[in-house]
Amino acid sequence: MVTESSSPFDFLSGLFPKKENIAEESKKPKLPDVVIDSDYTLAYVFAAIGVFIILTSPDKTCVPGSSSFVCPPSVWGVVQGGLNMLFASFLAIQASRIRFVFDETSFELKNVDFAASNEEVLRASGENFVVGGANRWDYDKFVNYDFFPSVDYPVLVYFKETQTPKEKWNEGPGGLDKVGGGQVHFFPAIANVKQLKEQFEIRGCAKVTNEV
Question: Which helix (H) or strand (E) holds 90?
Answer without folding.
Answer: helix 75-97
